[in-house]
Amino acid sequence: xxxxxxxxxxxxxxxxxxxxxxxxxxxxxxxxxxxxxxxxxxxxxxxxxxxxxxxxxxxxxxxxxxxxxxxxxxxxxxxxxxxxxxxxxxxxxxxxxxxxxxxxxxxxxxxxxxxxxxxxxxxxxxxxxxxxxxxxxxxxxxxxxxxxxxxxxxxxxxxxxxxxxxxxxxxxxxxxxxxxxxxxxxxxxxxxxxxxxxxxxxxxxxxxxxxxxxxxxxxxxxxxxxxxxxxxxxxxxxxxxxxxxxxxxxxxxxxxxxxxxxxxxxxxxxxxxxxxxxxxxxxxxxxxxxxxxxxxxxxxxxxxxxxxxxxxxxxxxxxxxxxxxxxxxxxxxxxxxxxxxxxxxxxxxxxxxxxxxxxxxxxxxxxxxxxxxxxxxxxxxxxxxxxxxxxxxxxxxxxx
Amino acid sequence: xxxxxxxxxxxxxxxxxxxxxxxxxxxxxxxxxxxxxxxxxxxxxxxxxxxxxxxxxxxxxxxxxxxxxxxxxxxxxxxxxxxxxxxxxxxxxxxxxxxxxxxxxxxxxxxxxxxxxxxxxxxxxxxxxxxxxxxxxx
Lengths: 400, 138
What we know:
The complex is a heterodimer.
Chain A: E1 12-19, H1 30-44, E2 54-57, H2 70-78, E3 84-87, H3 94-107, E4 113-120, H4 132-143, H5 158-171, H6 176-190, H7 204-209, E5 212-214, E6 217-218, E7 228-236, H8 237-242, E8 248-257, H9 273-286, E9 295-297, H10 303-313, H11 321-326, H12 343-347, H13 354-367, E10 380-387, E11 392-399
Chain B: H1 5-9, H2 15-25, E1 30-34, E2 39-41, E3 56-59, E4 63-70, E5 83-89, E6 94-99, E7 111-114, E8 117-118, E9 124-125, E10 127-130
Parallel strand pairs in B: 6-10
Antiparallel strand pairs in B: 1-2, 1-3, 4-5, 4-7, 5-6, 7-10, 8-9
């Protein structure tokens, strides 16, 4: 029997999901946002917190220094005894890997029901009112980039993505308008998503006249730095049957990581073969092919990186994603709708919650709860998340 | 690298990275080579990831071509209009460094050569300039 993690492994199920609005929540702590997302996920399926046996958490932001043992403080706030309690960190993939850990915990039978919570709310990292604490965080952000990049003043991933974008556009002779088109298309999806941070219509001219944050990346080809939280509740199929609750099954998981930190020196900056590897592993475990996918949600932190991701997954040939996007192949109603949520660029991007927001979007599509942006009859979905500047990738295949 | 922001940036640096910067301070750009796999890799590693054998340091020419380049708006140790780039060296490895030329004047594939730059904290960094370009006063 096939299983999401290989032969003979049990299939965990997603029984509920929930999130806060995505945007700016300066007055709210990550903890508050996380608990709101958890409450919403529980309420959606008529669950109560004391039914949870396990909590899988991620750190509550990139630029927030965090005291040790946050999971036990969250457990105290929640007021529920647990059989598994853990926090998992691997950059933007953190919440995806926390989801994996929860699924594995359920697949082994150690617990029957677990909540995965990711939340992010940041103080202004580079604001004018920088104090000593902020400077410490700025140093942590710089240290993240390691000995071969950080000394040059790199302390956000933007220039790393920009290097990749420039090379990608050069290798395939792509015009700026062709990349900007993706931002416009994602905004059309977001217009149909009440959760999305940015919903106003966008034109190619808007994108190309927005400021250049790191050439060739424009502001409107980058995600907003968002606050928000999301939660996914995972359970065994047997538990869901007993509770008579509908579920979405995890049928395949794949993961692959390059041996690099932000700049993928050896593989080059335009192909990211580990994205393909993670996709192929997940599809093999699910006994599915790319053609079986009805809907996909990919990380896509910047417009050029998102286009590369489509190609790296295998949906389009090298350099062919921009034309496919322009032809509507990835739009609602197209061959394979991608990022129906609006993606990171328009849904908003609270990195520590983002993979759970991606899972939520695909679960809603598979459950037929996606409202105006529903992909008719969606039964098989793909969720992809990454860390660094696409230094590693994790893929989940979800089915109903 | 004593009392500066760089000590925070590099405080967890591994031994291969420390050796890399020690050599740079002596004016030598080098990375590691595995004799049994005949593999030259960047970044340097004390042991070969493929066979586990000890690596040896190999000096690099510092000559190469621009693979990609960009700028950023701000950073603790970055001043626009500096240009950041990935350089593909003659030996086949790619490295990260500054490009000492106006952004608009640069192109992918342009030949460049190494010009080590003493950082304000006393750390030696990689900088590259178009090959054959005259010395610019700094």
